Amino acid sequence: MPGLIGFYTFGEGRENWDASQFIHYGLSALQGRGQESISLATIEPGNNLRTLGGKGGVEEFFQKNKTSTPKGFIGIGQTSSYLDDYLVHVKAPYELVIGLDGKTDLHENRGEATKLFARQLSQLLHSEKEPLKATSMLINKIGGGYSFVALTHKQELVIGRNPLGVKPLETGSVGFDIGAVASETCALDVMGIDHTGPVETGEVIMFTPEDIRGNTPTTDPANFCSYEYVYLARLDSNVNTLPVARVRNRIGKELAKAHPANADVVIGVPETALPIANGYSQESGIPQELGFVRTGENIRAALKPTQKERLMGVQLKLNPVKSAFDGKDVVLVDDSVVRGNTLKNTVLNIKRDGAHKVHVRIGSPALLSPCPYGVEIPTRDELISANLDEKEIANNVGADSISFMTVEQLQHAIGLPRQNLCMRCFERGGAAG
Amino acid sequence: MRVMGVGGGAREHAIAWKIGLSDHKPEIFWISENRNPGIHKICKDNQGELRTGRTTDPKTIVRSARGWGIDLVVVGPEEPGFQGIPDALEKEGIQCIGASQELSVIERSKVDLRRLQWENNLPGKLLFRTFKNAREASDYIRKNIDAQPWLQNIVVKPARQSGGKGVKLIEDRKIYLHDDKARFKQAYFTSLQATMAAYSDIEDKILIEEKAWGPEYSLQCFTDGKTVLGTPLVQDNKSAHESDSGPETGGMGSISGPDRTLPFITMEEYDKSLKIVDGIVEAIQKKTGKSYHGMVGGQMMLTENEGPTVIEMYSRLGDPEALNMLAMLKTDIIDVFQAIVERRLSKLKLEFTNEDAVVVKVVAPNGYPERREKAKGHPVQVFETNIKRNGCYLFWGSADLQENGQVVTGGSRLLALMAMDHTLPPASARIEKTVSSIQLTDGWGLYHRSDIGTEQLLAKRQDTAERVRRLYKYREEQGILGRKTEWIPNVGKVDPSQLLLQEVHGPEKA
Prior knowledge:
With 433 residues, chain A is α+β, with helices and mostly antiparallel strands. Chain A has helices spanning 19-30, 58-64, 110-127, 131-141, 185-190, 226-232, 244-258, 274-284, 307-317, 322-325, 341-352, 384-387, 390-397, 407-414, and strands at 2-9, 37-44, 48-55, 74-80, 88-90, 96-104, 144-152, 157-161, 170-174, 178-182, 194-198, 204-207, 212-214, 224-225, 238-239, 242-243, 265-268, 288-289, 292-293, 319-320, 330-334, 358-362, 401-403, 421-422. In chain A, 31% of the residues lie in helices and 25% in strands. Chain A is elongated and about 70 Å long.
């Protein structure tokens, strides 16, 4: 799953901006969405469109390429949880570089699907008289769930969010000089840019040296990704105008109401589940404690491409604070359960550290199907909830009980109408897997 | 009545001591490889003698027993049993306490023991797998580690008893250290393969077992083949140094009492353990058609998966665990032995003190266990009055009484000090006060573990036991006690015990 940045400048002296600096920090803020592959593209004075891509993390990439990073005064960037997943460069007929979050339905493979989309966009920007309208028609025509940022050799920044609205994209600006987009608002904050609002579903915006033009967004009901609220988005972001922190707190409260437990302490599995645990604690009156300390850098273990890296991430991330568990009945709160490996490891460790009963409470419904839009939810063979019932899961991970939310409870916690939320991963018979 | 003992360690010294206390007033004779000063004295005091000789040679033993006109032989260590000493004696019509060669396989071959447990679906077993060579072992682990997570944390053992090759516990718990662990494992497999090449009597040379975690304890039993009578639990301490660190030894000291069980093992667990040992005795008798008469011991561990579980079996008493048990035994030991040979153990009233806790601490010369040659041949001085004054008992182990009356170290565990008290810590303290009464006059150092029997170590054992107990009780409540089934992403439900049963029985029966 990628995180996207678009950075645009206006006015006199715009050539003096170094877009790569903004992209660097913007991508840093988005690395929670994955950071296996980093890439950026900028336009330098003289209309040179330059790109650079390489292995992550974000910091290592920019450190390593200190001298070779294309600076430029406008640009886009992408950080992706996939290996070798970079911005796509199309040279002709209309040169552009595109970053895309999610997946179009042009091909099974995300990379290929993105390439096909890029070619069509290039073709249409080349031949259509009204490129904005044409692009708007394109995203209405091509299915899937995606948002994109594209930079053209004509110093245009074209961004869009397909009508489904599964993938977030947020706009911002500062002063008269800078406009920007990012997958999450936290990236705008970090770049020192004021958040102006979400890109609407079905909306296309074109930044050109002359103006900023947008189409009229669709009126179809959006289908926002509910997993953004559960796990993907950063706590300090707003997704579709809802503050993630508030949603996670409400998830915790809903969870406590729906699945109470007798326990001495509530402990969240870092990082994502900490605010959920906080909500659980507030609602239940059971005190919350910090139960784990991380070694090394913050890794989104679940987004790592190999099992070994995922386990490594988890083991380094979750060293138990023994006194938090010793002799206590524990409510262990996590955001979701994918394969169950992490949970098994964690429950066993904290029981060895002296936890008595361990009641696992999950701040989302059971994951039953892979994501058709490219979120790292594996096939059903790897999803523990698609294979085992709750008691079997509890036994497999060594917990005294485990409870998931229902789809309705999660929807209630998010606070959006059911038809505006994509919950296909929580449903059986969603995407083929 | 004339009794002869075989073996020259602290365990045998304690057996001799107990025989010497019998109301039957037997004359006591002994054969051991070393001239154990303690046994030597007991024999002399009881109208007998200690003769040195090869304790694993049936001819030597039979000849001596006949020459002395022995009524009953007691075999202490395992090796004479492995070599068929009890069989040879019985063939000559001499009564013997000790597992016969075929029965002692439960100790001699760790593979046969595991197979026996799995073939008969006995409780208290661990997953295992055997390999012909190092490559086969590494390949199997590499290929199957994802589908069978137990392969991550394993114990590597030689597949049969083999001069000094020990046990390696390899816990591959942290995946970022995996490559290093794999390298170490591979190297140990290779070294095992080299050592085991000498043994042509078995095809599979390397044994791996699932690594369990929990408190260990020994349950020693008397059996006449029909009845298995349990004795008080004893906990030995295998690591050479304080706080369970350092290399594996034969045992650095042990605790027992004041009750039948240990402070950290419940009576329910005791009963389960006894049932497990009983089941193994029954199964091996059925398999061999032989009757077991002598001592049998379960080296047990409380495990997360099943509670009481067999780590290894003894076909004899433990050393030093025998000291604890014998110190607590109130019944006349000759009565026990006679009940065994006459197969009427079920009618015997086997009594133990329930007032005294027993602590045993082994004193070993520096160099043991890794550099035994250096630990050998040092002259020993003992201040016996001091030992008596503190109410301690001394049992000689790897020590040799020379012609000139001087005792020298044999290179292994020199001796064991024992003390009894109402609870363990004061008994431990008594030994601590006494241990300076043992010295090597050439200045070579001695060491022992001061922590055995202390409040602190007991609390640690208690704590570990409670953690493990909660985990296996959880499995009991959930109805999955002892079950090894796991769900593995992309693989599905895997039950490694089914795979193992296929190994043991062949595919059609499993």
